[in-house]
Known about the structure:
Elements: H1 2-23, E1 35-36, E2 48-53, E3 58-64, E4 67-70, E5 75-76, H2 79-90, E6 93-94, E7 97-99, H3 104-108, E8 117-122, E9 128-134, E10 142-147, E11 153-157, E12 175-178, E13 184-191, E14 194-200, E15 206-208, H4 219-230, E16 231-233, E17 236-237, E18 250-256, E19 260-269, E20 274-279, E21 285-288, H5 291-297
Antiparallel strand pairs: 1-6, 2-3, 2-8, 3-4, 4-5, 7-11, 8-9, 9-10, 10-11, 12-16, 13-14, 13-18, 14-15, 17-21, 18-19, 19-20, 20-21
Amino acid sequence: MTKAKNTGLFILLIIQAALIVYLYRPGQGAPPPATLLFSGLRPETVTSFTITDNTGKTISLAKIKQAWIVGPDGYPGDNDKINNLVRRIAGLKSSRLVSRTRGSHSRLKVGDELFNRKIVLSGPDRKKVVTFFLGTAPSARTIYLRRAGEDDVYEVGGLSIWKLQTDKESWWQRKYVAVKNADLQSLTLTNHGKIISLQRDAKENWQLAGTPADRKLDRNRVTKLLNSVCRISISGYEGKNFAPQDKAIATITYKTRDKTFKLRIWPKNNKANEQVIKNSQSRFYARLEPYILQDTLELKKSDLLLKLKQPSTQPPAAAKKKGGPAPAQ
């Protein structure tokens, strides 16, 4: 009897061991493969983008002829930043399903009324393509997301509410002048009636108009000038109805292979420590910090020329006497 009982227990142990091996076999505890949350979203079809924060404030971005504009006034948008964000949303994946209950939406702040961010992407004719909500962040790299019309809540990475602000300044294009040096054919600076004009010659070398025959162009100084005026970033835009009270003190005229435009510059506002500029290609006046163009406005034509070699002030060395020194006595 005892022998039969022991045999039965032994068989039971073997069955339990086999069950444990089966349940905990390699790969059994691995999470399900990550899948796209917005599989039907094609970034190139998105033509508008709205963000609403938890206070109800909304910012609208719209794409017109492949260029993004910000808000109802149509400020230039940062195309790279916005396009990268749309592509990131289209590529969102999650392998972690946090909740499937509607009651969790308010707690996780992904509800229809209680949320941290509501994002709406639309296509042509304002037809909604994707709507979703972002809630609290369980970690520094992840955030809760719920697609509109669904109860499921996911934990995703790659998005942050701090990068989805509702102020227009966060989405402005700050590059106000962007010209490649190699494309520039001429540059003319008019400052208080004085003109500095640079032109490329047939060999693509820069020449300064009015250079004396005995002077040569300082190529390094010219390159420094071009770098400072061909890439100008601003601190902000003025309103669409803004008009400066003073007259412009300087104008820079750019001529490339396919276009010509001007940048007008106004006096520094000492109170605000800013300077107003206006690109003829833009609808908007802009503001920048005065130091950005300070060297350009103080530039003289002679600064672009190599310094003349000064004649030596030392007397010529005494000529040696013919025949060498006299023999010692």
